[in-house]
Amino acid sequence: MAEWLGIGKRARRCYGFDEISLVPGDKTINPAEVDTAFEIAGKKFKVPIMAAAMDGVVDVKFAIEMSKLGGIAVLNLDGVQTRYENPDLVLEKIAKATPQQATEILQSIYTKPVKEKLIAKRVHQIKTKGGCAVLSCIPAHAERFAKIAIKSGADMFVVQSTVTTTKHIAKEYKSLDLFAFCKSMKIPVIVGNCVTYDTTLALLETGAAGLLIGIGPGAACTTRGVLGIGVPQVTSTVDAASARDFYYKRTGRYIPMITDGGMTKGGDICKAFACGADAVMIGSSFARSKEAPGRGFHWGMATSHENLPRGTRIYVGTTGSLKEILFGPAKVDDGSQNLIGALKTSMGSLGAANLKQMHDVEIIIAPSIQTEGKIFQVVQRVGMGK
Questions:
Q1: Which terminus of the chain faces fewer neighbouring Cβ atoms within 10 Å, N or C?
Q2: Is there a domain that residue 273 lies in?
């Protein structure tokens, strides 16, 4: 599986979504009759697509709307939602600012401390409207924030960092004991992020209810460029799914793998499930929704899981409502809308009645899949030619 880079050094070939394609099987199914639901910690969700914990993507209103549509939106406890009583004013200021002004604003807004009372308030706001309250923070804040989250009635908790392992070595500070943390929690815990078989297997032993897979593939993430770290999502997902299946055979406990990042269109999401994902997490597609608090902007901060430097702000534009992005009808031709419709159609064409059956479809290495025969799309800059 590995190739020689030079004397004494070999490297394994890994793959991303643009390099593979899915092969139709010997049967097809009516797309309206396939089941896209996924289960985590005994709870079922009809939409297997989670909204990433980024300030430009998820706020209270977005989380409530996502819940109504059958999915999960993760609220970032390290961001503006818990630092400001009225985060909308801050977000509006960022959206209206020039690029230079936005950099200065983003560098300053995260210097204010998180207000613990706002954590409880945000959970209460989501729950009173019938929403599913799923919260996220970095490991350093997990023990403190989790206590408030549980007391406030949160449904799930996510502990997320750029690279997560069970063996974090530090003399300067006390690291989070994931084993003790997951055991003590009264609500399900999702842990991330990781990309390798061995680390996935080790994290499964912590008692986590789900794992996030992916390092550096986010639309605005700088980890791969700045740190040189990352594994393409196809290989990451396949390796993580293999660890999940081994763990299940050994223990009888099935833990969902959630592919996080690197997916911008329906086809990418379909491929993630074919690689073994039980659910996916995306940010930029939802940042384009009318409900997104970022008004079409996609950004993060230095302490977030995406490792974005303060000042990073990318305008992705608003293309439609959250419902249109998930269920259509699509108003654009780039595959960024009607994601569930795309998934159902793909499953029907592949003969997969549910997401578990998607794990068994044939995958081929096909680097020309995006360009083969697409000359008119390229010339007219439509569809995959954009």
A1: N
A2: yes
Q: How many helices (H) and strands (E) does the chain have?
A: 15, 16
Report if residue 12 sits inside a domain: no
Give the chain's length.
386
Sole residue written with tokens 């009888």 = 252
- For residue 56 the two structure tokens come to 């430009």
322, 59 contact by CB (below 8 A): no
What CATH number does residue 335 fall under? Answer: 3.20.20.70
| Best CA proximity match to 72, nearest among 282, 254, 291 | 282
List the structure tokens of 33.
């009759």
Give how many domains the chain has, as a whole number: 1
Burial class (CB in 10 A: 0-12, 13-18, 19+), 117: exposed
Between the alpha carbon of residue 6 and those of residues 3, 11, 231, the distances in Å are 9, 10, 21
Which tokens sit at 260?
A: 């996080």
Residues 68-113: pLDDT tens digits? 999 999 999 999 999 999 999 988 887 777 777 777 787 788 889 9
Is the residue at 96 inside a domain? Answer: yes
- The range of the structural domain enclosing residue 119 comes to 19-385
Question: What are the pLDDT digits (tens) for 292-336?
Answer: 987 656 655 433 444 444 445 555 566 789 999 999 998 888 888
Residue 368 lies in a domain: yes
CB-CB neighbours of 237 under 10 Å:
28
* Burial category of 62 from C-beta neighbours within 10 Å (exposed 0-12, middle 13-18, buried 19 and up): buried
End-to-end CA gap in the chain: 34
Which residue is it, tokens 């793909």?
346
CA–CA dist 246, 207 (Å, integer): 15
Query: 289 and 56 in contact (C-beta within 8 Å)?
Result: no
Task: Report the alpha-carbon distance of residue 264 to residue 62 in Å, rounded.
Answer: 19
Q: Which residue type occupies 357? A: Q
